[in-house]
């Protein structure tokens, strides 16, 4: 393949957001040591703005309806990867029946990472808690046992090693959002940094 | 795959020198989480990330975040209660 052909594809591919390049491998990004969470101690906790909690053990998560989304993902460090295949539980299932007036959610992870999203961006088939990748258990370096998957936003919003969601009335910026990154992070509007 | 590795805090010299006039890798910092005092060059820096993340070598909490946009940079030091920076000695007043 000639460099000219690659260059043309990069700029014209309608599936590639502005400023992104396509990669075939799956880069590993991490802001700290990889947490190792035994499945018998893993749990996912949904906390509402009034302090009510809903908890799922690993076994309970596995008993929920499973989906197999295939999606394109876009990292703010400018790589994109097309057609990634995951297995997990839709946030619609986890949020079903949860009584809340919150407009925002802050995901928190084993290891201390946090990221914030509008609650509406987690509904209507837009987000999952995934535990499988390419037909295999999700490897720890990619966020296993389970990570958030919110593919329509930059991938830092898809928190690795996810442990729970706090539903909040006010927007509470997370790990990267308090250090210069954009609060929302839409790759199609190239919302990389604050003010973009 | 292998465990995500970190770099030595000495690698912060270049990126921080771009932002600040002093060589912060020669500074001493106090961790806001565990209180350990030590050289900033001793931080564990995770660089395969959207920014540089410097963690305390004792408790692994975040002491420093450095994010570089094309035209701006953010330095977040909320995880460090202070930085002690070596300074040139002030000249004592000459005796009368």
Describe the 3D structure.
Chain A: InterPro entries: OxRdtase_Mopterin-bd_dom, OxRdtase_Mopterin-bd_sf. Chain A: It holds the Pfam family Oxidored_molyb. Chain A: This is Sulfite oxidase-like oxidoreductase. Chain A: Residues 32-176 form the Oxidoreductase molybdopterin-binding domain. Chain A: Residues 1-24 are annotated as: Disordered. The complex is a heterodimer of chains A (196) and B (96). Chain A is mainly beta and 196 residues long. Chain A has helices spanning 3-12, 58-63, 91-95; strands spanning 21-22, 43-47, 53-57, 70-74, 79-90, 104-109, 114-118, 128-133, 136-137, 147-149, 162-168. Chain A has a single domain, classed as Oxidoreductase, molybdopterin-binding domain (Sulfite Oxidase, Chain A, domain 2, Alpha-Beta Complex), CATH 3.90.420. Helices cover 11% and strands 30% of the residues of chain A. In chain A, strands 1, 4, 5, 8, 9 and 10 form a six-stranded mixed sheet that branches. In chain A, strand 2 and strand 3 form a beta hairpin. With 96 residues, chain B is mainly beta. Chain B has one domain. In chain B, 7% of the residues lie in helices and 33% in strands. Chain B is built from one helix and eight strands, in the order βαβββββββ. In chain B, strand 6 and strand 7 form a beta hairpin. Chain B starts with 6 loop residues before the first strand and ends in a 12-residue tail after the last strand. The model of chain B has no long low-confidence stretch (mean pLDDT 88). The interface between A and B is medium-sized, with 21 and 21 residues.
């Amino acid at each position: 393949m000639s460099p000219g052909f690659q260059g043309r594809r990069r700029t014209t591919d309608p599936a590639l957001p502005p400023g992104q390049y396509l990669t075939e491998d799956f880069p590993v990004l991490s802001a700290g040591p990889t947490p190792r969470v035994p499945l018998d101690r893993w749990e996912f906790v949904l906390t509402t703005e009034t302090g009510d909690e809903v908890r799922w053990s690993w076994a309970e998560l596995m008993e929920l309806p499973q989906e197999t989304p295939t999606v394109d993902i876009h990292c703010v460090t400018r790589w994109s990867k097309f057609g990634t295949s995951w297995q997990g539980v839709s946030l619609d299932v986890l949020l079903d029946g949860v009584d809340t007036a919150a407009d925002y959610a802050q995901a928190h992870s084993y290891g201390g990472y946090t990221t914030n999203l509008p609650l509406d961006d987690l509904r209507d088939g837009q987000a999952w808690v995934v535990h499988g990748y390419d037909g295999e258990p999700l490897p720890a370096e990619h966020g296993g046992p389970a990570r958030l998957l919110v593919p329509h936003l930059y991938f830092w919003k898809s928190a690795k090693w996810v442990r729970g969601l706090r539903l909040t009335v006010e927007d509470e910026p997370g790990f990267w959002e308090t250090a210069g990154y954009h609060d929302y992070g839409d790759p199609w509007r190239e919302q990389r940094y604050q003010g973009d | 795959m292998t465990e995500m590795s970190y770099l030595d805090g000495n690698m912060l010299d270049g990126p921080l020198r771009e932002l600040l006039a002093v060589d912060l890798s020669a500074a001493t910092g106090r961790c806001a989480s565990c209180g350990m005092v030590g050289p900033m060059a001793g931080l564990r820096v995770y660089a395969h990330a959207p920014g540089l993340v410097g963690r305390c070598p004792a408790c692994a909490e975040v002491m420093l975040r450095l994010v570089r946009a094309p035209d701006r940079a953010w330095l977040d030091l909320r995880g460090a209660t202070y930085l002690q920076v070596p300074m040139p000695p002030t000249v004592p007043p000459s005796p009368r």
